[in-house]
Amino acid sequence: MNKQTEFKLLGAGFFDSRYVFGNESGFVTKERCLSNYELEFFVENGGHLFVDGEVHEIVRGRALVGKPGQKRHSKLHFKAYYIHLKINDCYLRHFLDELPNIFEVHNDRVYEEIFLRITELNESDFTGKDLYIAAKIYELVSEMYRDANMAKIQMGELNDKKLEKARMFIEKNYNKPIKLKDISAFVDLSPVYFHKIFKKRYGESPNEYLQSLRLLKAKNFLVATDSTAEEIAFLCGFSSQSYFNYFFKQKVGMPPLQYRREVLGRYKI
Q: Most exposed residue of 141, 202, 220, 255, measured as fewest CB within 10 angstroms of its CB?
C-alpha cells in the first residue's frame, strides 16, 4: 500500500515565534483559512490561539488540531512542534475531524518523541521512510484520539460546574445591568465559547435566560406586591420602565398593570 496516496506530509518541525517575529510580545498574526490539517504540540506557556472566533490560551502540554476550512490566527509568543498534512484517507480524516480544536495531552514525553521523530524522518532520505512516517502519523492520531476523549470527559465535568456557577451568578445578579462578558469572565471562559455551551445546556442563550428570569420575577412582584411598574422595572434589572412595559407586553401579550388586574381578578371568595 502506498501511503503517499493516503496522505502527504507537507511539513514538520519546531516553531519558535520569537525567532520568526522577534521578541515583541502581544503581536497578533494575520487571520488565515486552513487548506490542510495542522497538528501542533505546545511546549511553553504564553500567547493565545483564535480558531473560528474561539479563544484558547496556549499552555504547555496542549495539542492543537487545525482542520481544513477553519480560520485561525495567534497572539504571540509560543513554541510548538508542528506537522502539516494533506489527507486523502477518509478513515484518518474521520478521526481528526472528531477531535476538538485544542485539548490537554496525557503524556508530554510521548508527543515530543513522536513529533521529533516525524521531523527527523521528514528530513532524512532513505528507502521506505514513507512507511515509517505513516506509522508515526497513525500513532500520533491514536494518542490524540485517546487523550481528547479523556479531556472531553474532564472538560465536560468542568464545564458543568462552570455552567451551574454561571447560572447561580445570573440568579443572584438578575437585578443588575450584567452582560455576557460579565458572566463569562466570572466563570473564566471566553464569551463566544460560554455562549455556545450555555445555550446547548439550558436551551437558551445567557441573555435569554437572564431576560426570562427577569420576566418571572416581575410577574411575581406584580401579583404579590403593590409596587408600581417603575419600581418593579428597577427591582428586576430592566433599563427603564418604558423598556420594561415594551418587553413585558411583547412576551405576555398585555402591559404589566393589566396583567396584575387580570391575575388578581381571577380569584373569587
A: 220
